[in-house]
Every structure is written in C-alpha cells, then in structure tokens.
Amino acid sequence: MNDMRDLYQQLILDHNKSPRNKGPLENSTSRAVGHNPLCGDRIEVALRLDGDMIADIKFEGSGCAISQASASMMTTVLKGFSTGRAQELFEKFHAMLTGDGGDMEQLGKLAALADVYKFPARVKCAMLPWRTLEASLDSQPAMISTE
Amino acid sequence: MIDHPVALDPARIRPDFPALAMQVHGHPLAYLDNAATTQKPNQVLEVVDDYYRHSNANVHRAIYELGTRATEAYEGARQKAADFIGADSRSIIFTRGTTEAINLVAYAWGRKELHPGDEVLLTEIEHHSNLVPWQLAVKDTGATLRHIPLGADQSLDLTNLDDLLSSRTRLVALGHQSNALGNVNPVAQIIRRAREVGALVLLDGAQAAPHFPIDVSALDCDFYALSGHKMLGPTGVGLLYGRRDLLESMDPFMGGGEMISSVTLDSAEWNEVPWKFEAGTPNIAQAIGLGAAVDYLTALGMDRVRQTIDDLSAYAAEVLGALPGVTLYGDAATRSGALSFNMEGVHPHDMAQFLDGVGIAVRAGHHCAQPLMERLGVSATTRASFQIYNTREEIDRLGVAVREAAAFMLGV
C-alpha cells in the first residue's frame, strides 16, 4: 500500500475528484486533442492566447486519475505563463517523469507527480495533457497520440 | 439423475504451476489475467526443456536419430491437438497463435474466394484479431463486412440474423467465447443458419478451447483457431483446424522451406496439407509443449475444467456484483471464464494499478475490442479471468481489494 500512496498522493486524488479548469473554453485561440489508445484516455486542451501569454486554459475529456489530475494541475500552473515558459516547464516535467530529476523547485506542486516515474506504464498518462498542450502550442497535428 | 462433473481441487493443481508460488509487492500472487495468457505447469515446462536437451533437431529433414525424435514429437503433438478438438491430424496446421490462424484463412481463402458483392458476417464483440484481418481482406477483394449486433442483455442479438445472412454471405466468423465479456456465443444456432445460405463458418476458439470440450465435427464448423499459451501451453504456437477439402483447394499462405514438394528456379509444387501451410522451421519446442498442455488438460478432463472455471466465474460475479458501485458486463446467462466490471468513479487503469499493489493481476483496458467498448459506452473495463488453479480465496481478496480501491481513490 505504501507504493500506492507514492503514486496517488493526496493532491492527485483531490485533483482527480475535483478537477480544476475542466469544461469548454469560450473564445479559445488554439486547441488540440490527445489520445492514449492503450487505455482509451482522451483529453482536449483549449487555450486563449493573449499575444504570447496564456490568458486562459481549460481541458475536457476522460481518463484515469493520473491523466485527469495531471491535466487539472497543468491548467492551474500555466495560466499567465508565456508560451516559452510553458515549453520550459514541459521539458522539466518530462525530465522528472523519465527519472532525470528535473527542477523540483520550479515544478512546484507538479512535483506531486514525481513518483510516476517508478511506474513506467503510467508515465504516458501523466504526459498526455502536456503532449496535448505542446500540440496546441505548435498548432501542429490537431490530434496527437501517445503510441 | 444428472451427473455434474466434480470441480477440481486447486490445492492439488497449484503445486504444478511454479509461477503461482510467487510473491508480488509483498503479497501472494493472485493471477487473474488468464484470458490474456495462462501460467504453465511443470509438465509443459519440462517437456519443452527436455526437447531442447535431448531431441533438438529440425523436423522432416534430418536423417539422423535426433531428427527422428524431433519429428515424432512434433507430429505427435499434432495428433494430440487433433484429438483434443475431435479432428483428423491432417487438418491441423500449426501457427504462431489464433491471430496467425485467422490471418491464414483471410489470406489463403479470403483473397482467393471473396469477390465484390460477397459478404463476411462478423459480430460487434470480436477481438481485433477476428476483425482487422477481415477488414484487410474486404479492402483487397471488394467484399463487404456485416456485423451481428450486441443486444440490450449483452448477448448477441440474433433477431435480424435472417437479414444479415443471405446467399451473398460467404463466411461467418465469430468468437466461440468472448474474451471481453466471457459470453459463450450461440454458435450452434448461427452455424445451422449459415449452412442454410451456404456460408462457411470460422470459430475463434482462443477463449473456448482452454475452458470446455471442443468437437469440431459436432460443431460442424469449417475453420477453428486457438492459441496454445491461453491453454497452459507455451507462447508462439497455436493452430488452425480446417476442413480438408477447403485446405486442399487453398493456396499457400507463406512460401519457403517445408511447404513445397518440388522447386525449380521458376516454380514450385506444394507439399501436402497441412505442411503446405507450414513454411519454414516451425515452432517445434512450442508445438511439443502444446501437446503436453493438451495431455495435462485431457488427464484432468475438460468437463471438470469447465465445471471448475464456471464455479469460479459464478462466485466472482456474486462477490463483485454485491459491491456497491460495481457494474458487471456480459450476458449473465452464458458468461464464464472472464468477468468484466467497472467500479463507479474509479478508472479501470487505476483499479488495476491498485490491485497490483496487493498482488492481484487483472487486465484493464479495451481488451482488443474497441468497437465493443464503444457499444458499451465505456472507454475501458477491468477484467478478471479464471483458470483451474484459481481459488475462491483469491476471488475474496479481489472483492475486498476492489472495495478498498474505491475507498482509497474516492476518499470515502
């Protein structure tokens, strides 16, 4: 059971039960859909950019606790960020999940997801919202997949 | 008086399976993912090991003693597999598994016999391995796919079977038992109706063969596919049963050694059935291992195997069905072997993760049946599936852990 508490920290359970910024975003300027074919998780991230700044960000969709909490926490952190800073945070978050450490101080509450790296099958779940965010910022493919 | 077969005693079965003695995350392993693959008894492991130590040679080629031993063991396994499903050994083709067996039919029969206007009838609940090969086949041939729908009671809805079957139907291909729902499909009724319109029938027996007695001549099917690793045998081997006259008329699936009788630089003549379909060095050790698995199951008696798995499945439905927030899937009247469920508010992947934490191995996901998941209106389910070595205590542990998972994830 200790392992479970590592993976599912209280903050994660809380964001899963009461996700923040979940729902449609009016006047969005960019959006993307992310899909994890392995488990059927599907997330849509919508942004309203004011110049280079993320003025608002919301997500929709369904998935496991890890992907839902990751999406919820991502939206609370990124509001007000420049796209460049968001990209930097993406890199740090990714480094943390692949066990390369990452900069815990800068990651703030996202560090609650740090132990996901011990569960390789679930890294994709935590990354899904971030990969979808990246796609929406790149305005590249409208649909991304973790496979 | 009706004689019910006596269920097997897991205390006498379990010592045969070394993997079952493992501890996982500090808990005894409860292996409940048997619809994905089964654990292997010593009787299978030892036969495979012994083949490599004492009989390893290529089959049908070597003049020397080891080659004779290997060939006898390999062909002996074919005879055992044939006896296991009531077939003649010459109508048994060793393949890599069920998927390759179905693809063999989709290529060697489908590409030759399907034409524009023809139809292949499947069901909405097929494993991808009995769906995608046919999607590819109709794309190449201009034929059309149709599907028997899933009814409200989550059994196949045969109401419109007369509309779905016609003189255009060339083949009906369906699972004998569903991997995702556990349903045993009404194949006798479907085969009878298929015969009336002159359609051939292929049964995917991947889930049925490890569960109850199979007799392909009584079933009156034309093709039957199964996998060794789902019935206590090694990975990498399965088989296709095919009606002899059909196999004779089909062209080879793959070219290479073994499958020819004579070759010139420009052409070749095919070997006899079934070797015509076994190009290259086969999975000899695995086929021999499958023969040992068949021996093991036959010695226990497939009637008793069925009774054991049916009892465990019914008990699991009782235990999980009694938990608040749990939805069970599948047709309660025929469901056995596999039990799909969801706990309200807990995603199946989180459920499986939590169960793994207490040593219980189950499957979470779409079970290679995405159209079915869409039909059920879920993205995934959790599935517990049973074999002769599982115990009621393991199912009790599952019930407790499912309830604990909900309490943990939902904080109630």
Considering the chains and any ligands shown, give keywords for the structure.
heterodimer, A: 147 residues, alpha+beta, Sufe protein. Chain: A, four-stranded mixed beta sheet, 4 strands, B: 412 residues, Aspartate Aminotransferase, domain 2, 17 strands, 39% helix, globular
What does this entry show, briefly?
The complex is a heterodimer of chains A (147) and B (412). Chain A is of the alpha+beta class and 147 residues long. Chain A contains 6 helices and 4 strands; from the N terminus they run ααβββααααβ.
What can you tell me about this protein's structure?
The complex is a heterodimer of chains A (147) and B (412). Chain A has helices at 2-7, 10-17, 65-78, 83-97, 104-107, 120-138; strands at 30-36, 41-50, 53-62, 143-145. Chain A has a single domain, classed as Sufe protein. Chain: A. The model of chain A has no long low-confidence stretch (mean pLDDT 89). Chain A is 45% helix and 20% strand. Chain B has two domains: 10-40 and 302-410, Aspartate Aminotransferase, domain 1, CATH 3.90.1150; 44-299, Aspartate Aminotransferase, domain 2 (3-Layer(aba) Sandwich), CATH 3.40.640.10. Chain B contains 14 helices and 17 strands. In chain B, α2 (42-54) runs antiparallel to α10, α11 (302-321) packs parallel to α14 and α12 (348-357) crosses α14. Chains A and B meet through α1, α2 and α3 of A and α12 and α14 of B.
